[in-house]
Amino acid sequence: MFYVKYKEITKKFNFSNVINKSELPGYIRHYVLDDEKILVAYKTSRDHGVFTDNKIILFDSVSKFKIKKQMYTIPYKSISTISIIFEKSSALLNLLLDCGYPIKLKFINVAPDDKVRLRILYTCINRIISNQEPTKQDIKKLINDDIHFKLEEN
């Protein structure tokens, strides 16, 4: 959920699919600056979430007929705290903005590769909000969607 003055202004985003960046609708690409790199994009049944190397962009189709869309931009520099919770087939990304507003982004039907992708994304965002550079290897993995779950042997 995303709160402003502690009033809910969006429903929960239950991201269920990673989508190919080339399949993003044109209106979404307009909100990504020329010098930004799209790390990963997600879709709900009707909404989108795009994570770039600078910000999160959430697109909320307000009605089931997609008559009205709301767009939220959350610069990483406005995030003071981030946490991630993994469950068997879901994950929850908790963000707390500098102004004190919480944002909860839920990822459902999460496969092992999706968990790896979310871990890398979380690490990149965490490094950015800590005034550190994300590793080039992590950024490259996200941009190229080079994510593979490997079962560790003991």
Account of the 3D structure:
With 154 residues, the protein is an alpha+beta fold. It is 19% helix and 40% strand. It is built from 3 helices and 11 strands, in the order E-E-E-E-H-E-E-E-E-E-E-E-H-H. Strand 5 and strand 6 (48-52) form a beta hairpin.
Which ranges are low-confidence, i.e. pLDDT below 50, for 5 or more consecutive residues? none
Derived from helix and strand composition plus strand pairing, the structural class reads: alpha+beta
Order of helices and strands: EEEEHEEEEEEEHH
Q: Describe the sheet with the most strands.
A: 5 strands, antiparallel
Radius of gyration: 15 Å
Total E-strand runs = 11
Q: What is the helical fraction, as a range of percent?
A: 10-25%
Mean pLDDT score: 85
Please give the alpha-carbon distance between the first and last residues: 40 Å
Supply the number of helical segments: 3
Strand order of the largest sheet: 4-5-6-7-8
Characterize the overall form: globular
Indicate the proportion of strand residues.
Answer: 35-45%
